[in-house]
Amino acid sequence: MSVAVITGAGQGIGRAIAVGFSMRDTSVVVADVRGSNASKVQDEIQSTGKKALALEVDVSSEPSVTRMIERTLEEFGTIDILVNDAGIYPSASIEDLTQESWDQVIGTNLTGTFLCSRAAVSVMLEKKKGRIINISSATAFRGAKNGAHYAASKAGIIGFTKALALELALSGITVNAVCPGLTDTAQPRGHMTDKELYSKKERIPLERIGQPADIVGPVLFLASDKARQITGQTLFVNGGDLMW
C-alpha cells in the first residue's frame, strides 16, 4: 500500500485530494496547520475503513516539517507521494501589503513547498521512487489583483518544480505542478460573495466554477505509474479559463 502526505489537507482542495487517495487504498497523512481540521478529515477517511494519520503541521517551520516526516515514518514506514497543497491568500493591495504579510505568504506557500519536498526527497531517494505534486495557481501566470505576494509565491512554485524535476530526473522521482483555476473553496470566499464568485463563470469557456473534486483526478494521475514519463510539467485545471 502506498503512503501519501498531503499538506493543507484539512479543508478544500487538500481535503478532496486526501479523500481521493484514500479511496485508492493509499494510506494518507492529513497535514494541516489547524489540527482540529486535520482530525476531522482523518475521522472521515477512517470511517470508510481506510488508514489516515492527522498531524498539525506548520509547513513554514523546518522543525514542524521534520516532525511530520518522522511521525509519518513511525506510522507507515515510508513516503511514496507528497502533495504540497498548503497555502494562504490574505488579500491586500500593494500599498497595504506589509512585509510581515509578504513573508507569511512566501513562507507558507513557497518555502513550505521547499521544506516539505526536501524532507520527503531524502526518504524517496533511498527507494529510488516517488511522486511530488505541487499545487500552484493560474495566478502564477496571469497575476492577481490585491495578491502580489500570492502570485509571486505560486510563480516561485512553478520554477521550483522545474528545477527539482531536473535534479531528480535520474532518481525515479517525478515532480509536477497542478494549477487550479478559480475554485469554490474558503480561499476565494474569504474576499468574494457568492454572487461575485459565481458571476465569474461567464469568463470560463466551460461556464462553471471549479470544485475541489475537479483537482483530484489530475493529482491521482500524476501520482500514478501511468504518469511515469511526465516530470517538470504544469497541468492547468481551470475550465479553459487560461490556455497556455
Briefly summarize what is shown.
The chain is built from 9 helices and 7 strands.
Rg of Cα set = 17 Å
User: Could you state the order of secondary-structure elements as H and E?
Assistant: EHEHEHEHEHHEHHHE
| Shape by Cα distribution | globular
What is the helix content?
40-55%
Number of strands: 7
Question: What's the structural blueprint in terms of helices and strands?
Answer:
Layout (H helix, E strand, L loop, with lengths): L2 E5 L4 H11 L4 E6 L2 H12 L5 E5 L5 H15 L4 E4 L14 H29 L2 E6 L3 H4 L5 H20 L5 E8 L5 H4 L4 H6 L13 H11 L10 E4 L7
Parallel strand pairs: 1-2, 1-4, 2-3, 4-5, 5-6, 6-7
Structure, explained:
- Helix content is 46%, strand content 16%.
- The chain has 244 residues and is α/β, with parallel strands linked by helices.
- It has a single domain, classed as Rossmann fold.
- Helix 4 links the parallel strand 4 (81-84) and strand 5 (130-135).
- The radius of gyration is 17 Å and the shape is globular.
